[in-house]
């Protein structure tokens, strides 16, 4: 272990609230200190992000902290933001910039004026910055492709190839994914590849139970309502194959007063961020989504995965199911099948779910949390601690009345106990936070 990592790793782990590296992370660090490139295969939630960040850190020249030395390419905005968040929590003390569509490019351009050590971004936005000369490529020597197989599958190969072609010298490549691609694209400059496969074989794990839900109607909505009612407050993701299905199902459930959030690629960035916050904070317990949520989302303890639409292939099925049964917890997989559909060969059923007609339908209750939107964030010099102090001192609530808080560059989300939120917003409506006037809004 090099001196920089050895002297700082305990602090990094403390920032992440982790006691020790797991075997996968230790294996990555050992290989990264050599000359080989790495392909890491591991499920989301296994610590894969920290693993490749340690690989990046092992290659950094800390004396050149004003130069961009590493580039991480990811298929989605959410992955970019998640990696940036992990880096910040570690408290590395070296600059990172996240680049992705959905917000102003000028914000990133300003952040890139003083070169960050690490840049993480989506293929399209990174390629755009490279064309404009906003990123210094002559100092980059480390390339990480996270979920590289999905990036290729989603049609980003051309942009990734363009990105790689503009980097003059790459001496370390790190490929990370939850599934193994059939082949690695030839334009990726692999020299000598070491593959670390930390995927858990199906027979090694009994943490997941797969349950068939049979539906009489093609839209399966009636059975979905019964299932969600039976699941109650247990956090669950409902996967659909298309965004129009997400919108239709979400609307139908909301009309029944079932608290849900919808999430798909055609939503604006702030809408996606809000939906994820509501789900993570417990403001809603059901996320209706496309396969956009099948990778990279770091949300603690999702109890159930529901396949409203059958997945197209085994890899998609695996990635969807990877949202649950993480960190030694158990999870349930519900496969909803219209009576005229045929289950794919890759789906195995452990039991059949039955709704007892004698049972009274009791729709899921509203969460005890509400989400408050604040149009201020990190760039306004605000932190989580500032919001906690503000709501306790000015809003008259106790610490336990404040839930999850997310502070982004220019906006923040705060979960406040539903029974107190109206009273709190009334108290603070004329108050300032750090001498700044602010109009907070309750997200309905």
Short recap of the structure:
Helix content is about 35%, strand content about 20%.
- Gross CATH architecture of the largest domain: 3-Layer(aba) Sandwich
Mean pLDDT: 89
The poorly predicted ranges are none
CATH top level of the largest domain?
Alpha Beta
Count of β-strands: 20
Sheet/helix structural class: alpha/beta
* CATH superfamily annotation of the largest domain: P-loop containing nucleotide triphosphate hydrolases
* Strand order in space, largest sheet: 3-4-2-5-6-1-7
Number of domains: 3
Keyphrases for this structure?
444 residues; alpha/beta; Alpha-Beta Plaits; Rossmann fold; seven-stranded parallel sheet
List the helices and strands and how they pair.
Elements: H1 3-15, H2 23-32, E1 37-41, H3 48-59, E2 70-73, H4 77-90, E3 96-99, H5 105-113, E4 118-121, H6 123-131, E5 142-146, H7 148-153, H8 157-165, E6 172-177, E7 193-197, E8 208-215, H9 221-231, E9 236-239, H10 243-255, E10 260-263, H11 269-281, E11 286-289, E12 304-307, H12 314-321, E13 331-338, E14 351-352, E15 369-374, H13 384-393, E16 402-407, E17 412-417, H14 418-428, E18 432-433, E19 436-437, E20 441-442
Helix pairs in contact: 2-3, 6-8
Structure report:
The protein is of the alpha/beta class and 444 residues long. The chain has 3 domains: 3-197, Rossmann fold (3-Layer(aba) Sandwich), CATH 3.40.50.300; 205-352, Rossmann fold (3-Layer(aba) Sandwich); 369-442, 2-Layer Sandwich (Alpha-Beta Plaits), CATH 3.30.70. Helix content is 33%, strand content 20%. The chain has 14 helices and 20 strands. The chain has helices at 3-15, 23-32, 48-59, 77-90, 105-113, 123-131, 148-153, 157-165, 221-231, 243-255, 269-281, 314-321, 384-393, 418-428; strands spanning 37-41, 70-73, 96-99, 118-121, 142-146, 172-177, 193-197, 208-215, 236-239, 260-263, 286-289, 304-307, 331-338, 351-352, 369-374, 402-407, 412-417, 432-433, 436-437, 441-442. Strands 3-4-2-5-6-1-7 form a 7-stranded parallel β-sheet, sandwiched between helices. A 7-stranded parallel β-sheet has the order 10-11-9-12-13-8-14. A 4-stranded antiparallel β-sheet has the order 16-17-15-20, sandwiched between helices. β3 (96-99), α5 (105-113) and β4 form a beta-alpha-beta unit. α2 runs parallel beside α3 and α6 (123-131) runs parallel beside α8. The longest helix has 14 residues, at 77-90. The radius of gyration is 23 Å and the shape is globular. The N and C termini lie far apart (50 Å).
């Amino acid at each position: 272990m090099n001196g920089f990592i050895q002297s700082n790793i305990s602090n990094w782990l403390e920032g992440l609230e982790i006691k020790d590296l797991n075997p996968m992370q230790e294996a990555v660090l050992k290989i990264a200190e050599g000359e080989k490139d790495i392909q890491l295969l591991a499920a989301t939630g296994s610590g894969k992000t920290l693993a490749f960040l340690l690989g990046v850190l092992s290659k950094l020249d800390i004396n050149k902290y004003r130069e961009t030395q590493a580039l991480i390419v990811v298929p989605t905005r959410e992955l970019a933001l998640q990696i940036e968040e992990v880096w910040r929590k570690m408290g590395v003390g070296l600059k990172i910039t996240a680049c992705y569509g959905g917000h102003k490019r000028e914000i990133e351009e300003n952040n890139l004026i003083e070169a960050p050590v690490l840049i993480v971004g989506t293929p399209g936005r990174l390629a755009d910055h490279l064309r404009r000369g906003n990123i210094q490529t002559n100092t980059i020597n480390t390339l990480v492709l996270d979920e590289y197989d999905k990036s290729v599958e989603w049609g980003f190969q051309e942009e990734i190839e363009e990105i790689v072609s503009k980097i003059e010298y790459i001496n370390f490549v790190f490929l990370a994914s939850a599934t193994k691609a059939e082949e690695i694209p030839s334009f990726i400059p692999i020299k000598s590849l070491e593959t670390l496969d930390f995927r858990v074989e199906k027979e090694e794990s009994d943490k997941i139970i797969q349950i068939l839900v049979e539906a009489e109607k093609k839209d399966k909505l009636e059975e979905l309502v019964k299932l969600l009612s039976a699941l109650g407050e247990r956090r669950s993701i409902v996967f659909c194959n298309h965004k129009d299905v997400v919108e239709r199902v979400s609307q139908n459930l909301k009309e029944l007063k079932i608290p849900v959030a919808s999430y798909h690629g055609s939503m604006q960035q702030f809408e996606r961020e809000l939906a994820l916050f509501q789900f993570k904070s417990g403001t809603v317990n059901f996320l209706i989504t496309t396969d956009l949520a099948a990778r990279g989302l770091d949300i603690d303890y999702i109890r159930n995965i529901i396949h409203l639409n059958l997945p197209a292939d085994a890899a998609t099925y695996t990635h969807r199911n990877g949202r649950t049964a993480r960190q030694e917890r158990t999870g349930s997989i519900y496969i909803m099948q219209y009576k005229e559909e045929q289950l794919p060969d890759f789906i195995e059923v452990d039991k059949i779910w039955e709704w007892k007609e004698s049972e009274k339908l009791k729709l899921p209750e509203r969460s005890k949390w509400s989400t408050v939107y604040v149009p201020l964030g990190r760039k306004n010099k605000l932190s989580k601690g500032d919001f906690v102090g503000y709501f306790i001192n000015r809003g008259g609530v106790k610490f336990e009345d404040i839930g999850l808080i997310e502070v982004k560059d220019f906006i923040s989300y705060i979960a406040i106990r539903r029974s107190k939120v109206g009273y709190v917003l009334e108290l603070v409506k004329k108050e300032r936070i750090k001498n700044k006037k602010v109009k907070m809004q309750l997200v309905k």
